[in-house]
Amino acid sequence: MTIVLLSLGSNLDPQQHLRSAVEVLRERFGHIHVSPAYRTPAVGFDGPDFLNNAVMLETELPLIALDEWLHAVEDAHGRDRSGPRFSDRTLDIDVVYYGDLVMEGPKNLRIPRPELKHAFVLKPLADIAPDFVDPVQKLTLAQMWQQHPQHGQAFDTVAL
User: Fold this and answer.
1) 11: which residues sit within 8 A by CB, 6+ positions away?
2) Average pLDDT, whole number, for the chain?
3) In angstroms, rounded to a whole number, what is the distance separating the alpha carbons of residues 153 and 138?
4) Is 88 a catalytic residue?
5) Whole-angstrom Cα distance, residue 45 to residue 31?
6) CA-CA distance, 156 to 80, in Å (whole number)?
7) Which listed residue, of 54, 68, 76, 118, carries a Cα 20 to 30 Å from 27's Cα?
8) What is the pLDDT of residues 80-103, one digit of tens each?
9) Which among 55, 112, 108 is positioned nearest to 81, based on CA atoms?
10) Residue in 81, 85, 94, 156 annotated catalytic
11) In whole angstroms, what separates CA 120 from the centre of its chain?
């Protein structure tokens, strides 16, 4: 079994889409750890605020199969991939970590995800997996969060 850390986000009916995504992940993978959801401004474009959270799960699925399954979940939630990369989203689910794997693959797949630089990705991950060690930086997620420029700032938590 491989420990997988996911980043979830939505800015179109976000509470509904994140709640539904968490339910789908529970149905498929059983026991999962879910972080609080945080409201954050859109990055890279003008749009409604996002809700972002993180999920930790264990799976035997190979990375590419997992990534394809997650894309199908996004599509089932109305994800439109025809627009610009930075745009409104019904649901975005990214594999941030897949065990200690470091790789670049097809369809913009990079593990660990470069979006870790953003508080909206790192904070929820540090909430649920503070002792997880980043295979590149060799720091725990708690240590990475403590070093982040936004560490210590208040974040608006939203119930799902």
Assistant:
1) 42, 47, 48, 49, 50, 51, 88, 89
2) 92
3) 24
4) no
5) 35
6) 27
7) 118
8) 766 666 667 889 999 999 999 999
9) 108
10) 94
11) 9
